[in-house]
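Researcher: Let's walk through a ligand-bound prediction step by step. First, I give you the protein sequence. Second, the SMILES string for pyridoxal-5'-phosphate. Third, you return the three-dimensional complex as structure tokens. Ready?
Model: Ready.
Researcher: Here are steps one and two:
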Amino acid sequence: MSVDTQVQRSWFEDVMVPCYNPMEMIPVRGQGSVVWDQQGKEYIDFAGGIAVSCLGHCHPVMVEALMEQANKIWHLSNVMTNEPALRLAKKLTEISFAEKVFFANSGAEANEAALKLARRWAKETHGEEKSEIIAFTQGFHGRTFFTVTVGGQPAYSDGFGPKPGGITHIPYNDLEALKAHLSDKTCAVMMEPLQGEGGVVSPDPEFVQAVRDLCDQHHALLIFDEVQTGNGRTGHFYAYQELGVTPDILSTAKSLGGGFPIGAMLTTTELAQHMKPGVHGSTYGGNPLACAVAEAVVNHISQPSVLQGVAEREQWLKQGLSGLNDKYGLFADIRGKGLLIGAELNDEWKGRARDILVAAGQHGLLLLVAGANVVRFTPSLVITQKEIAQGLEKLDQAIASLV
Ligand SMILES: *Cc1c(COP(=O)(O)O)cnc(C)c1O
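Model: Step three, the predicted complex:
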């Protein structure tokens, strides 16, 4: 018996805080978009660690960057700066609107920094009154108390006592509601430029433009949460670049480190000056090991060939899904952008997204859901055509087992 098989899934119930409900198998190894569990069973990975493993598992450029930095220096604290952080920040400012970068360790922390910066800016430039944050129902921004409260799913923020105040939620794509609520008291609008967790919902282009215009009119900041959409996921390095609307603050994480924890808040020089020394910080934020891996990931993804390859993979996957829909008639809609794809179940299959995820797991395919009715696909941006075909075949078998 190998060491791997001695670790039992049942330990989870024994020793882990039960805030997750993990699948029965335990993956131990991954290569590209293939993962193997303790028993050596093979899985095709259409989940990509929830839109994180953008180069698949153990991509050589990530492994090389990690090993090289591991032999140099791991951690310094922000009492000093470090080379990988400076190089990564420079690269991020070159490929986006941003002039300044703040590093964190996760999406929630990047958003926490974005919200704190917006509030600080508003107070210093307009006064106490300008504190309202407008966000969207079904939006998701992380699990810290501030970010989960700005997120639009009360089920995630209820039950923890008094919430941070001054937050208003309106429906996504609802222009009238936006006009009715945005005012001179609005400090910032926070939105995902394509709602991920909330069901893979795209914004109407006119809506995004109207958000920008109204923010300008009322001197409010626009914060794009690109934690899920960023780093090539939609086929552009950031989703805003295709929408033609530039935010004032952008948060990024998930695919930024390709599996190594890192997040970042990007903004302008003018806004950044409101975060003077001591105003905000993080022990690990900008850690050299994380930044070295992220630098390699960003350099690789930002190549035109990789970004252009996303659209091609989107086609293969969407065509395969509509083929399965012709065969089984289970999807009401197949939507999303790039490799952030949602397949919404029709009335007959309503509420069965998790059943499909579980059946897929049994047939050797890793999937995600986005709510009870949407099956979500966020594979590696460099998944091969063969891996996509293999995954679709397993999905076919999984669906067949449910009909
Ligand atoms: C995943 C996600 C977050 C939270 O990121 P963590 O790294 O889990 O804190 C925030 N916003 C969006 C849009 C996300 O998809």
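Researcher: And what stands out?
Model: The mean pLDDT is 97. The pocket of pyridoxal-5'-phosphate is lined by residues 106-108, 111, 140-142, 192, 196-197, 225, 227-228, 253-254 (CB under 6 Å).
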